[in-house]
Design brief:
231 residues; mainly beta
Length: 231
C-alpha cells in the first residue's frame, strides 16, 4: 500500500517466502514499514527463505538507489537479512528493526549517512557493514545473538554514539576495514571487541574505541591488526 501524499509505503508479508525489492529509485522523505501478517515456526520454510534464486538475502532490499531522509521500520520475518541495502548513496533518518531471524541490517557497496539505528532481537548480527563507507550518529542494539556491529571487506565506519546490550561480541573490524567509535556503552557481552583478517584476499584491520570501554581480557587483536584507544 502506497500513500503518495504522505510518502508512506506499507509492506505486509503474507507468505514467509515473500521478499520486496526497491531498485534504481530516488527515495526522498519516504517512510517504509514492513511487518509479517502472522508468526511462522516452520524451520524448513525458514531455511528456504534465507535467499532465493536471485540470491536476494533480505526481506526488504534497496538497491542502486539515492536516499534522502528515509525512515525504515521492520518487524519480524524469516530471511537471512531483514534489511539489505546494496550500492546505494545518501542519508537515512532512522532504521528500526525488531525480531530478525538472522542479521537485522546488512549494508553492501554503499556510501551512507545514518542518523539513528535501533535494533532489538537479532538471530545473528545486528549490523553488518561491507565494502563501503558509513557514518552513523547513534546506534542502540539489544539482544544480538552474534555480533552487535560487524565491519568487513575494506569498509570504513564512523559511529558517534553506540549502546550495545546483550551481544555475544560487541564490535568486530575485519578484512582491511576501519571502525571508529567515539562514545560507547557496552553491557552484558562475552567478547568486547576484535580486529582480524578472515579472508585471504584482505589484510589486517583497525579499530578505535574510547579508553576504559573494555576489559583487557575481553579484547582480541590479531597480528597485523591495530587497536587504538581514544582518550
Amino acid at each position: 500500500k502506497i500513500d503518495e501524499k504522505r510518502k508512506i509505503i506499507n509492506f505486509t508479508m503474507i507468505n514467509p517466502l515473500d521478499k520486496f525489492v526497491i531498485y534504481e529509485s530516488e527515495l526522498d522523505g519516504w517512510k517504509i514499514n514492513l511487518i509479517q501478517s502472522k508468526k511462522y515456526n516452520n524451520d524448513s520454510i525458514t531455511l528456504k527463505n534465507r535467499y532465493n534464486k536471485k540470491l536476494l538475502t533480505g526481506i526488504l532490499t534497496i538497491q542502486d538507489s539515492k536516499l534522502n531522509e528515509l525512515e525504515i521500520n521492520i518487524d519480524g520475518g524469516k530471511a537471512e537479512d531483514s534489511l539489505n541495502i546494496i550500492r546505494s548513496k545518501g542519508n537515512i533518518r532512522s532504521i528500526n528493526i525488531t525480531n530478525s531471524y538472522q542479521d537485522a541490517a546488512d549494508f553492501d557497496f554503499s556510501d551512507l549517512d545514518i542518523s539513528e539505528i535501533y535494533i532489538s532481537n537479532a538471530g545473528n548480527d545486528c549490523l553488518d557493514f561491507s565494502l563501503g563507507n558509513y557514518r552513523i550518529s547513534k546506534i542502540e542494539a539489544y539482544n544480538c545473538s552474534d555480533k552487535g556491529i560487524s565491519v568487513g571487506e575494506n569498509s570504513e565506519v564512523f559511529i558517534n554514539n553506540v549502546i550495545l546490550d546483550s551481544s555475544n561480541i560487541n564490535a568486530v573490524s575485519k578484512d582491511s576495514s576501519k571502525l571508529f567509535i567515539e562514545n560507547a556503552e557496552f553491557r552484558n557481552y562475552n567478547l568486547c571487541i576484535a580486529a582480524y583478517r578472515k579472508k585471504q584476499e584482505f589484510g589486517g584491520s583497525f579499530i578505535q574505541i574510547p579508553i576504559n570501554t573494555c576489559l583487557k581480557e575481553k579484547i582480541i587483536i590479531q597480528d597485523n591488526s591495530i587497536l587504538n584507544f581514544k582518550k
